[in-house]
Every structure is written in structure tokens, then in C-alpha cells.
Amino acid sequence: MFKAREAGLDLVEVSPMGRPPVCRIMDYGKWKYAQRKKEQKSKANRKENELKEIRIKTPKIGDHDLEIKIQHARDFLGRGDRVQFTLRFRGRELAHMDEGYKIFQHIREILSDIAKVDQSPRSEGKRIAMVLAPGVAAPAAKPAPRAAGVAPRAIPQRVPVPAPAAPAQAAPAPAPEAPATEPAAEQK
């Protein structure tokens, strides 16, 4: 304590539970200030990914309206945010949930160059939701690279060949008719 006063610094207990307790001579105010600045700098460098929601009110959405929503999603994904598409169904639309899944498949195909599916489309009551995250989805299987100047092989198509016609046969002879029987004389 005496040394700390002579230096004009503080005596700070670093580890009170240790045997013996550990103390340090330092300028406590300066240390607190440095800690606060260090924390602010780490917060500034940290990128918080937000979840942006894009709502589609009906599966009967027009093509242009859907393209606008996809463009907004592309902007969000470009900034590093995740995007949740939500499609609401009302009334009779609930009978056509498959239309909603088709819309989400279309969205997934268009945004496959910059996004990967974080949560595939799933039904939640009267709505379907899908979450996309920035990043390129893993491609399926790429074909092997070809040598320069080598044309790709054409894959032969299977064409059904008609069965050979049976040899023409003469029309079968008509079956002999049974001899007509004369009605027996009527008796009186």
C-alpha cells in the first residue's frame, strides 16, 4: 500500500480468492478506460447479421411483384443479412399449399447464385416460411472438365422401333353355314 501511494497509483486486488490474495499496483482509472475502448472497438468490428422478413400476402402474386421482392432479398443478402420469406394463405387458398411451395422453389432457383437455404420451406399453420442465408449453395455434381477443342458427346436418344408387321394372311374362309332346316309340317 505504501509503494502504491509513493507512485501515485492504485493498489488493485486481482485475485481475492487466491492464497495469498494477489494485488497489483496500477492506475485503475486508466485501466478501466482502456478496457472500455477495447470493448467498443470489438463491437464496432463485429458484424451483426439481421434477419430480414419479406412477406408475400398471397400465392396469387404477380410475376413482376415477385421479382421486386426477390430483388429486395438480393440486396439484403448482398449486405450479409439473412432473409425469411413468409407466404400467407387465406380462405380457399389453404387448399392450394402446393402453389406456395412452387413459389418458394422459384425463389430458391433464382437466388441460388448468392444464397443458400438455411431453413427449407415449412408449413406453419396458415403460412409457409423459408430462410435464406448469404453464401453460395453447394453445387450438386459438376461434370468433369473437358479438354479444349473437344466437342461434347451427343447422348443417343432411344427411339421406339415399331414391331415388324406380321405377314399378310389371306382372309379366313367363312365358316360353313349350318343347313337350313325346314320347318316341320304343322299338324292340325
Major sheet description: 4 strands, mixed
- CATH-assigned homologous superfamily of the domain at 51-134: Translation initiation factor 3 (IF-3), C-terminal domain
Structural class: alpha+beta
User: Any idea what the CATH architecture of the domain at 51-134 is?
Assistant: 2-Layer Sandwich
Strand tally? 6
Task: Give me the Rg, rounded.
Answer: 41 Å
Shape label: elongated
User: Poorly predicted ranges (pLDDT <50, ≥5 residues)?
Assistant: none
**What is the mean predicted local confidence, pLDDT?**
78
The CATH class of the domain at 51-134: Alpha Beta
Listing every helix as H and every strand as E from the N terminus to the C terminus, the arrangement reads HEEHEHEHEE
State the end-to-end distance: 157 Å
Q: Give the neighbour order of strands across the main sheet.
A: 3-4-6-5
CATH topology value of the domain at 51-134: Translation Initiation Factor IF3
Percent helix among the residues?
25-40%
- Number of separate helices: 4
In terms of DSSP E residues, the strand content is 15-25%
Walk me through this protein's architecture.
This protein is α+β, with helices and mostly antiparallel strands and 188 residues long. Among the domains are: 2-45, Translation initiation factor 3 (IF-3), N-terminal domain (Ubiquitin-like (UB roll), Roll); 51-134, Translation Initiation Factor IF3 (2-Layer Sandwich). The protein has helices spanning 2-7, 28-45, 63-78, 97-110, and strands at residues 10-15, 22-26, 51-56, 82-88, 115-124, 127-134. The strands form two sheets. The chain has a four-stranded mixed beta sheet with strand order 3-4-6-5, with helices on one face. The N and C termini lie far apart (157 Å).
